[in-house]
From TrEMBL:
Signal peptide: none annotated. It comes from Albimonas pacifica. The lineage of its organism: Bacteria, Pseudomonadati, Pseudomonadota, Alphaproteobacteria, Rhodobacterales. This is Biotin carboxyl carrier protein of acetyl-CoA carboxylase. GO terms for cellular component: acetyl-CoA carboxylase complex. This protein is a component of the acetyl coenzyme A carboxylase complex; first, biotin carboxylase catalyzes the carboxylation of the carrier protein and then the transcarboxylase transfers the carboxyl group to form malonyl-CoA. Residues 85-161 form the Lipoyl-binding domain. Coiled coil: none annotated. GO terms for biological process: fatty acid biosynthetic process. Keywords: Biotin, Fatty acid biosynthesis, Fatty acid metabolism, Lipid biosynthesis, Lipid metabolism.
Length: 161
């Protein structure tokens, strides 16, 4: 254990409080005090997901051709879209990128057929690029976020049916 025991305990408590205040799920910090004296801390928490009941209509009307949609969901609309049975939610807080690098084609577009596990977009969190895979096979019906926008944990990113 570090020579800075009391200060380390206070620091870890502050990290835990920061997780609670910001609704983050994980923080990892390395502190260097000098040669052969450092502190590595990883603080995580698990969120309890509330059970969701979803009513699925027997038959949905079919649209002629889906129009491209890339609008940010806010307020009540975001809550409704988050409950959509085809919603893909952000697994973390971060910044959304719809393509691998600037100028590259988007991972997916509205109307594309996707396979389970296919990369839909990237969420950058703490300078780490996290590929977000499709949780199911289907058709991209709506893209709810714009490239380069911040997202919260659980925010709906797109609709796949």
């Amino acid at each position: 254990m570090s020579k800075h025991h009391e200060a380390d305990i206070a620091f870890i408590r502050q990290l835990a409080e920061l997780l609670r205040e910001t609704e983050l799920t994980e923080i990892e910090v390395d502190r260097e005090y000098g040669e052969d004296d450092h502190l590595s801390v990883r603080v995580t928490r698990q969120l309890q997901a509330a059970p969701v009941q979803v009513a699925v209509p027997a038959a949905a009307p079919v649209a002629a051709a889906p129009a491209p949609v890339a609008a940010e969901a806010t307020g009540d609309a975001a809550d409704d879209l988050a409950r959509h049975p085809g919603a893909v939610a952000s697994p973390m807080v971060g910044t959304v990128y719809l393509q691998a690098e600037p100028g590259a084609p988007s991972f997916v577009r509205v109307g594309d057929q996707v396979s389970e596990g296919q990369t839909l977009l990237i969420v950058e969190a703490m300078k780490t690029m996290n590929q977000i895979p499709s949780p199911r096979s289907g058709t991209v019906k709506r893209i709810l976020v714009a490239d380069g926008t911040p997202v919260e944990f659980g925010a709906p990113l797109m609709i796949i049916e």
